C-alpha cells in the first residue's frame, strides 16, 4: 500500500460556490521524494492541510501509512513531521525548549526541566541538527530574539527530531541562505537513504523539484499532471539545438536541404534555433559543412514544463 494514498478527494468550504479541491487522486510510495506544485489558490494548501489532519475533507479517501486521516488522526500525527509555511513556534521559550517539548510530546523522551538533564541521545541529536542548519549559537536564546530565517531553521529541526516516516515540507527553504538550503537537502536525502523517509514537498523554487521521483501539478482544484520530472518534460517540451555561423545563409540553406524546420529572428541577426525533430543532434551536425560559431543544446527545465502545464489548464490563478 502506498505511504500516502489520496482518492477522489473533494473539499468545499462553507458558502463557496465551487469546491477548492475537485476529485484529486494521487499516490506516494514509501521512501519517495514527491513534489506537489501549483500556483496560489490552486488547491495545494487545502490538500496539504487535509493530509496533515488540520482540515476536514468533504469527501474522498486519504490515508497516511495505512491510517485514515480523519478516523485515525492520532496515529497519522505520530507518523508525520511537518515544516509549516507559517511559523508555529512558542516565542517565549528558547529554541532548544521548543525542540524539547516537541520531542517529549512525541513520546521520544521523558521530560526533564533542563537540556543538561535530558538523555545524551537527545542532546547529541539536537546539537547535530543545529549544526546542519546553522543555529548552534542561538540554540539557547529566546525565539522572540531570533531572526525570521533563524526561526525557520528552528522549525526544521523541530520537525526532524523524531525521524518521521513521512516528512511534509511546505516551502521548507523559504528564507534560508544558499549554504543552509544545501545542508538541509543533504540531510533530508541522508534521512531517506538511512530510514526510508517519505518526503512530500511543496516549493516555489521549482529547481528544488528537479531531482524528485514524482511531481504532481494541481491547478483550479484538479490534478493537471502527475509523473516523473523527465516524463513531464518530454510530454510537453522538446530540446532545441542553437546554431550560428559567420555564413548564416549557407547554414540555413544546409538545414533546409536536410529537411529541417528552423527559427530565426526577423532581422536574421541572431542565432538559429532548430527544434527537436526526426534527426538526432549527431545526425544534424554530421550533415553540416558550414563552420559553426555557436553550438548549444537547450534542454527544457521542470520549470518550463510546470509553466506549460499551467498554461494548458487555464493559466495560473491569483
Tell me what you see in this structure.
The chain is an alpha/beta fold. It has two domains: 4-233, 3-Layer(aba) Sandwich (Rossmann fold), CATH 3.40.50.300; 238-299, Alpha-Beta Plaits (2-Layer Sandwich), CATH 3.30.70. Helix content is 33%, strand content 22%. The chain has helices spanning 44-51, 73-79, 95-105, 120-133, 148-160, 178-195, 229-236, 248-257, 281-286, 302-312; strands at 4-11, 21-28, 33-37, 59-64, 67-68, 80-83, 166-170, 198-202, 214-219, 222-227, 240-244, 272-275, 294-298. The chain has a six-stranded mixed β-sheet. A four-stranded antiparallel β-sheet has the order 2-1-4-5, with helices on one face. A hairpin with a 2-residue loop joins strand 4 and strand 5. It is elongated, with a radius of gyration of 25 Å. The two termini are 36 Å apart. GO terms for molecular function: ATP binding; ATP hydrolysis activity. Keywords: ATP-binding, Hydrolase, Nucleotide-binding, Transport. It is an enzyme of class 3 (hydrolase).
Amino acid at each position: 500500500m502506498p505511504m500516502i494514498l489520496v482518492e477522489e478527494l473533494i473539499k468545499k468550504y462553507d458558502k463557496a460556490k465551487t469546491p477548492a479541491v475537485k476529485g484529486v487522486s494521487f499516490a506516494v510510495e514509501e521512501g519517495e521524494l514527491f513534489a506537489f506544485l501549483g500556483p496560489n489558490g490552486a488547491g495545494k494548501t487545502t490538500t496539504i492541510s487535509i493530509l496533515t489532519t488540520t482540515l476536514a475533507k468533504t469527501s474522498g479517501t486519504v490515508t497516511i501509512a495505512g491510517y485514515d486521516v480523519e478516523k485515525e488522526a492520532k496515529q497519522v500525527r505520530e507518523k508525520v513531521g511537518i515544516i509549516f509555511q507559517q511559523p508555529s513556534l512558542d516565542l517565549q521559550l528558547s529554541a532548544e525548549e521548543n525542540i524539547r517539548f516537541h520531542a517529549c510530546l512525541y513520546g521520544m523522551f521523558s521530560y526533564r526541566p533542563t537540556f543538561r538533564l535530558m538523555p545524551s541521545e537527545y542532546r547529541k541529536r539536537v546539537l547535530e541538527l543545529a549544526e546542519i542548519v546553522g543555529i548552534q549559537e542561538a540554540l539557547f536564546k529566546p525565539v522572540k530574539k531570533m531572526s525570521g530565517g533563524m526561526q525557520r531553521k528552528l522549525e526544521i529541526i523541530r520537525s526532524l527530531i523524531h525521524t518521521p516516516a513521512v516528512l511534509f515540507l511546505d516551502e521548507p527553504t523559504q528564507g534560508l541562505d544558499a549554504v543552509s538550503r544545501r545542508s538541509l537537502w543533504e540531510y533530508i536525502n541522508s534521512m531517506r537513504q538511512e530510514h526510508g523517509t517519505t518526503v512530500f514537498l511543496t516549493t516555489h523554487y521549482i529547481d528544488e523539484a528537479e531531482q524528485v521521483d514524482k511531481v504532481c501539478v494541481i491547478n483550479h482544484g484538479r490534478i493537471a499532471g502527475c509523473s516523473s520530472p523527465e516524463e513531464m518534460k518530454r510530454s510537453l517540451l522538446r530540446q532545441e539545438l542553437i546554431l550560428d555561423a559567420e555564413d548564416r545563409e549557407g547554414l540555413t540553406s544546409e538545414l533546409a536541404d536536410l529537411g529541417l524546420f528552423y527559427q530565426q529572428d526577423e532581422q536574421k541577426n541572431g542565432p538559429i534555433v532548430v527544434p527537436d525533430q526526426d534527426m538526432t543532434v549527431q545526425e544534424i551536425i554530421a550533415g553540416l559543412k558550414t563552420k559553426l560559431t555557436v553550438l548549444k543544446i537547450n534542454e527544457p527545465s521542470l520549470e518550463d514544463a510546470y509553466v506549460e502545464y499551467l498554461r494548458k489548464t487555464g493559466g495560473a490563478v491569483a
